[in-house]
Automatic annotation (TrEMBL):
Top-level EC class: oxidoreductase
Superkingdom of the source species: Bacteria
GO molecular function terms listed in the Swiss-Prot or TrEMBL record: steroid dehydrogenase activity, acting on the CH-CH group of donors
Coiled-coil region(s): none
Protein name: Fumarate reductase flavoprotein subunit
Pfam hit, one: FAD_binding_2
NCBIfam families per record: PRK08274.1
Amino acid sequence: MNYENQSFVQAGKRNFWGGLPIKTEDKGVGLMRQLFARTEEIGIDVWYDSRAVELVSEHNTITGVVVEKGHTMVTVQTSGVILACGGFEANKKMRSENIGEEWEAAIVRGTEFNTGDGISMAMAVGAQKFGQWSGCHSIGTDYNAPKVGDFTKPGDIFKKHSYPYSVMLNNEGKRFVDEGADLRNYTYAKYGREVLKQPGHVAYQIYDAQVRPMLRKEYDLEEATIYKADTLGELASLLPVNQTQFLKTIEEYNSAVQDGEYRPAEKDGKGTKGITPPKSNWALRIEQGPFYAFPVTCGITFSFGGLHVDTTGHVLDKEEQPIKGLFAAGEMIGGIFYENYPGGSGLMSGAVFGKLAGSSAARYTQEKVETINNH
């Protein structure tokens, strides 16, 4: 059960909010452990240090893939190819060209190897690009997180997802989003973009002693960047912000907070009145010291734009006809997400289209074998 990230204790009971009550043990590592166990069970070879560089196409049919294995180019002949190699989030050039120049400054939360190669290879053989190429999944991540994820310090430990219970200010000391617009699962993947728009690509999540015990566990890790002070004035002096505006913004926010019951496990409607942007839920006055600030910047998770596939996982060409022998799954499929992303849905998409693409490729291969045998 995903207690630590998706529930709060109220009246001695765990109350879940926002979905995702169940998680895989050990998260991504646990998922990969299951997949590798299955590959070993059925005897699938896995090539490491091997990079696919080109699809082999004959008469508009994919018949193989060229792989750079070590220092040798190897052409793997196959009845079909399934591309499941992620988006272009780790490719600065593609980010800049498609999402915007400012995205060169974004931290890459995951692997450095998702550089859009699979998408480019498919487009080189006529695949149609599809979806919101100007969009992506991006979150608020620790300002001092590594510029790209690695296995020693995975990007997940740097996320800062308790912002619905904060006030977020930029370097000018101003708020810029409705922190409590919705449950975290429905805003976190678009608020990274809003942070990137701020001066210096930075924002500060401000909390007081009332909510500090409710913050997610990543706020307590040694890797977390944190500022702490007994007064708001002292806290402002620790940050590279407009201190006068910082204090004015919090004063105006405190004055705008409406009375009501604070219920962090649900949308409680306890908001503000008379300020822009408003805070629609979970508005508590920031008044009980000590006070805390967590600096965040934008971390990109994956790109939304990708390839056009049909409901069987078949990659489509520019005339929206299936490219024989070519299938795709996962983040490189375009058209699944636009503007926003509900938490956990990428895993569901990968599972569904992975199954579809695998089944379709197997069926395609079987039909080819039967055709050859019949002749």
